[in-house]
Amino acid sequence: MKSERRSLPMVALRGMTIMPEMIVHFDVSRQRSIAAIQEAMVEDQKIFMVTQKDIETENPKKEDLFEVGTVGTIKQIIKLPKHIVRVLVSGETRGILSTIEYEDPYMRAEVDVIDESDITIPEDLNGQAMERGLKDMFVDFAAKNGKMSKEAVAQVLEIQGLKKLVDEIAANTPLYYTDLQEILNETDFWKRYEALAFKLVNEVQIMDIKEEIQMKVKERVDKHQREYILREQLKLIREELGEDTTISDAEEFEKAAKALKAPKEVKEKLEKEIGRFKSSLNSPAESGVIRTYIETLLEMPWNKAVKDSNNIEFAQKVLDEDHYGLNQVKERILEFLAVRSLTKKGESPILCLAGPPGTGKTSIAKSLARALKKPYVRISLGGVRDEAEIRGHRKTYVGAMPGRIASAMKTAGAKNPIMLLDEIDKVSTDYKGDTFSALLEVLDSEQNSKFRDHYLEVPLDLSEVLFITTANTLQTIPRPLLDRMEVIEVSSYTENEKLHIAVEHLIPKQLDKHGLKPEQLTFSKHAIWKMARNYTKEAGVRQLEREIGNVCRKAAKEILTTQKKGIAVTEKNIHKYLGKEKYTYQMVNATDEVGIVRGLAWTSVGGDTLQIEVNVMPGSGDIMLTGQLGDVMKESAQTGISYIRSVSREYQIADDFFEKHDIHVHIPEGAVPKDGPSAGITMATAMISAITGHKVRADLAMTGEVTLRGRVLPIGGLKEKLLAAKNAGIKTVLIPKENVADVEELSSEITKGLEILPAEHMNEVLKTALLAEDGQEDRRDI
């Protein structure tokens, strides 16, 4: 590729690029450009045309122009009105702007005119493939573009030779001037070919995408237009027939709004929304949202209340029929009824029934609704983590709906129902909001008279709702929320209570469920006790009911296959229906032993006993704790050791004993995690027994936490622990002195047959637990 430097008149083009092989006309209005054209005509009609970078520049300098332009020949000049000249130019070859010689009266530049006559294109298969590929791209572009005549396309396709083909396609393709400039800038032929091919393919893809988008838009517009026309026709037909349902709906809403018993604020909101509904007749989407909102407001029980039943005798009868025990809950409900009967009003209490699973917390709410003759709604809060579940979604969201509280009120159809918030301790919180905080407004008697649901947008009065919440544990409920509720502990059932519940409720229910008559299947008292003790391990009666159902199924099959008239389930044949025993109680040890003490534990399914074993062996003063103990129990063991070392001289323990011996504390059933602040005195007693060699009473169990100074601290779950001790055949139980008040609240059924000894200090524990060598209790005279 060669070049020749020439001095030529120059025209700066705005918004267009002229390519070699291109014949084009353009209008010139700037005086310097007109003068340059006239000078070119005086000379040899040659002119250099280069494109401005910015079309707004009036007097461009060299830096305002692209470097590569086109040298062409002026074919024709036509003068137009208003000092405009139209020029017909034929582009011939590329030129590179070197310098601008001068700018007035016209622009003249030194140009390196490029001679491309020496470019050779190989006539092998590669060259033919490139030529055919470029023609195919050009045909695709021309077909998609639609602005090129068939003659022009055919003329291009007849061209032979890759170089001429590239120049002709670049000259005849209607690309944007900046795209043409990019091709013009490529003085290397092979890069020019690649740039042109890329532009053609890119333009075809852009046009495909544009066409696809236009088709989708057209389809959507056509669909909406068609729906609009059909809707207008249908509207006109209905008007002619006098069946305009939309107007009828608006009138029905107005009529219902007038008849609705609701606060003034609700009435005003309804009138406003009905007006919006009328004005949105031509927008089905908007009118549908407004219609749903109006219907929701009309269905809410704003001032609609059911009359309370103040018959305390009837309520007492219903509660006793449905539930055995739960005396504290029943007493609180009857107190509420008595106050309501005397005052004719009164705030509804917010009760929280807390206790193990299967103890009747959920079903008591249903019985209460029957006793008070009120509507009953249940909301399960287990796993709820979105605040909108409580407060509702705002109307602006797609699929918006009221929250669970407002929906439950609508379902109840009254402003004073019984609402059960089940599993409130299993509510969770995430980035969507704090659900517990939303419940604060619901369960606060000072705030819930003006509860705001985001969907309703008007205050909802919850002050007359009788809220009952249930929880298995109070530990996961935030303190501010717990403070707003009256907590009633629902404790584990005793075996006698389970017997009564089974006889009065569970067995009749399962017999009816399995199609059996009472005379076809009977259970002995001892069989029920055995089921409760050896086939279930729970605080409630849910598993017991399943086992009774299991017996009923097997009995039904036996009656049908053997034609028996009746089956009696006793303690001796119960294994025939339920298989081998699933649970066994670790009964009291037969003999007094050294380093073995029976502790008492509370679990979520009731109470249990733990046998703590301690061994002392020669070593270097290490303490080993095994049995999968939690941090609290490990700290209790460390505290017990410290206490023992502080009183070692009183028990004639050698000063260097702890440096020369290892102590191993183990709690059997190592696969079960154990933790809690109530095994301190048990571990301390077992360790001092192992160290001194004195036996511990086998018929004794104990519970309590110990301090460094030997004080015995109070514990929880006393009822369950005493039941576990009684089931294990233990006669004497040591408890902290501060728990004596808890013993007084327990029924005689639990405490009967147990000697319960209070202890305030480890001295009292050890005097009772440790035996002297003659078999009598230790009196500190070792």
Task: State the CATH superfamily name of the largest domain.
Answer: P-loop containing nucleotide triphosphate hydrolases
CATH class categorisation of the largest domain: Alpha Beta
Give the spatial strand order of the biggest sheet: 19-20-18-17-22-25-26
Total of domains: 5
Poorly predicted ranges? 774-782
What is the average per-residue confidence, as pLDDT, rounded to a whole number?
84
Label the overall shape.
elongated
Gap between N and C termini, in Å? 119 Å
CATH level-3 fold name of the largest domain: Rossmann fold
How can the largest sheet be summarized? 7 strands, mixed
> What percentage of the residues does DSSP assign to strands (E)?
15-25%
What is the structural class? alpha/beta
Global Rg:
48 Å
